[in-house]
Amino acid sequence: MSSLVIANGLVVNSFGSRTAHVVVDGGRICAVLDASEPVPAADRVIDAAGRVVIPGGVDGHCVFRQVKVGHFGAKNQATAARF
Predict the structure, then answer these.
(1) CA distance 74 to 23
(2) For 3-52, what is each residue's pLDDT tens digit?
(3) Is residue 35 part of a domain?
(4) Helices and strands counted in the chain (H then E)
(5) Are 55 and 12 in contact (CB under 8 A)?
(6) Who has greater pLDDT, 15 or 80?
(7) DSSP conformation letters of 16-41
(8) pLDDT above 70 (res 73)
(9) How far apart are alpha carbons 5 and 18 in whole angstroms?
(10) How far apart are CA 52 and CA 62, in angstroms?
(11) pLDDT at 58 (0 to 100)
């Protein structure tokens, strides 16, 4: 039995997009199964119907300069690397 299944989500990856189940075990994605297959048994199942799932996706967004009172902002990438 897997630790987590994210079921019925619109899975978007380098192969395209399709409705599928993402199976996670031990903190790692071990399978992406077509939604026409039954949802595998798991300790926790999240129904992601109507939602986009990006398995292994990383948000590369980074803000170097925050213009808010009380926040310190880095002026460039070299300064940000020191934090």
Answers:
(1) 39
(2) 999 999 999 988 899 999 999 999 999 999 999 999 999 999 999 999 99
(3) yes
(4) 1, 5
(5) no
(6) 15
(7) EEEEEEEEEETTEEEEEEETTSPPPP
(8) no
(9) 16
(10) 22
(11) 73
Which CATH number do you get for residue 4? Answer: 2.30.40.10
Q: Is residue 27 part of a domain?
A: yes
If one counts the domains in the chain, the total is 1
Task: Return the structure tokens found at 3.
Answer: 């630790």
Burial of 55 (0-12, 13-18, 19+ CB in 10 A): middle
Nearest to 8, CA basis, from 28, 37, 30: 37
Is 37 inside a domain boundary? yes
Token digits of residue 56: 């292994």
Q: Is residue 52 part of a domain?
A: yes
Q: What are phi and psi of 16, to 5 degrees?
A: 125, -145
Residue 56 pLDDT: 84
Instruction: Tell me the whole-structure pTM to 2 decimals.
Output: 0.69
The whole domain housing 20 covers 1-56
